[in-house]
Amino acid sequence: MSRLERLTRRALRPWRARPEGVGIAGAAFGPLPFAASADWTGSYAVVPDRLLHALHCLRRRSVRRQTTLFAGLVDVELQDGSNAMTGEETTIVAGIEIPSTDHFFLALIFGVHIPLGLASVAIGAIAMLSQKRRGRHSRLGTIYFWCLLALFASATLLSLMRWAENYHLFVLGTLSFACAWIGRTALRHRWRYWVRVHIAGMGLSYILMLVAFYVDNGKQLPLWKDLPHFMYWLIPLAVGIPLIVRALLWPPLAPARPDFHLMR
């Protein structure tokens, strides 16, 4: 039984007759589709207002559903139109949206850029936590520098392929590698205050690398995606810079140490 039929039957239930004239007004509706009473003009009559109310409720529900459906279709059309206007196509991998379907772009990201980024983050952290002397710290620092160089090269190529959207990542990558180069050169050539220059340069390179990562991917990461965009810049700087300042005020190396001059 359809909804309209059920509502009509409910509205046409026999009702105790009202004053004269109600039956005549009801008869103006013509033959009813379902007989609710054997005698329309007898002691029982159908109240027309009840039928009108049922039909009105049914109409409101139908209009509401049609409006919701229409709004959903409009939203989909707007999204499709936006994609058509920007000309962007995306690839979703493990819940992360990559703004391209180009095979070379995707191969460069997953085959080169992401492994280099993970290696740079891990090796840089281990180098910073290692004892500051010739040996493990020096080897890991050198590996970090060359991984960062390769990461900067891949980021530059990716930025050139989508310059309008990624030029800021190229700027961050350039600053990060420049800081690492200054820090390493100060160490190798023993600039004046080379320890502090080395600490500041390598530390800033690591922070700027993290800023570039969060600026590019923060909107897709758990917890980070709920933050405003400027926090992707602020949080790494707010955490990293105080650590660098502390290391500059109390350097991990001291001239009295016998291996101080061996750091290269």
Automatic annotation (TrEMBL):
Keywords: Membrane, Transmembrane, Transmembrane helix. It comes from the Bacteria. The chain crosses the membrane at residues 21-38, 104-129, 141-161, 167-187, 194-215, 230-249. It comes from Bradyrhizobium ottawaense. This is DUF2306 domain-containing protein.
